[in-house]
Give the backbone structure.
Amino acid sequence: MTTYLNNHINFPIVLAPMVGLSHVALRETLLEYIPENFQTFWTTEMLNSRKLPSQDLSIQPQTLKHERDHNLWPQILCNEESAIRDSIPVLENWGAKAIDINMGCPVRKALKHNYGVSLMGDIDYASEVVLLASKYATVPISVKLRAGLQKDETFLLRFCEALIKNGANWLTLHPRTAEEKRKGEADWKQIKLLKDNFDIPIIGNGDIQCFHDIESLFERTQCDAVMIGRAFTAKPWLFLEYARSKGIKLSSWQESQLPDSPEAQAKAYGEFLKIFVSNCFKHFSDKDAIKRILFMVRVGHVWLNFGHSLSKKLQKISDLQSTLEIIETFFMNQDLTMYDRTNLRY
């Protein structure tokens, strides 16, 4: 890794930027699972560069911070100079230690405004966006991208070369095409392709559901860090399993949250949800907290047998106490287990 990354992170497992999920409550909850004296980058939800300059980031739900938030790595949608010029200083003043440009989002709303993966249709345009961001930033600029609009490795290399030439300090690759969205299988060979051809850090992303996947991605691609998305909505112990594999000392509480069976994983998931729920109600209005809790469970419950039942019961929640009571009661069920892998629908 570069000197900058070595100076800022020594724990190469990072949370993916996810709309509705990578917010202050999830960051604060997951921080409990990071070993003491170890650092990683912490992402945000996608932020719109056109809106940021006029927003008060101290009260905006997507940019709320907790008191231990650090190494913040916000992700922005951007494609025009005025918005880039005005939004980047706002993020730096807010506390950004690096800024990520989204060139991977495949959703229609982003594509409509020529954001996200649509930028991958034009190498010159995309690289100009990176050049502008580098011009106005005093912190490193990274880019999160997909396999492109088509599975064309020659195009991917040309595209990444242009980004790097214009100032990208590192890249994160989710090796699916725009059309595949979250379906199909991530082509990790493309992450290895970038590692073999460029000397900047490459972060690998896609299809991480269990610790074996983390090991495999590092081994097969030699990537510098692994980014995990949906699995962190249900399996925070992936941080702990990685730490244990490296002989890193854990706290007694962290040891207690390192499950050794599918049944123990279910209990650990319940404990994780209780912490997350408390953090949601601490940082958000009741209405917003409930919305974020329900979405979190909607994404994460698929690894739990009877997870649909949990999601259904939580539709009744109205406040912190009722939510905690439902979770506590539900996870008393001794038949609950977690799956290593499942078919992901979100």
Notes: DSSP finds 14 helices and eight strands in the chain. The first strand starts at residue 13 and ends at 15. The CA atoms of residues 88 and 137 lie 6 Å apart.
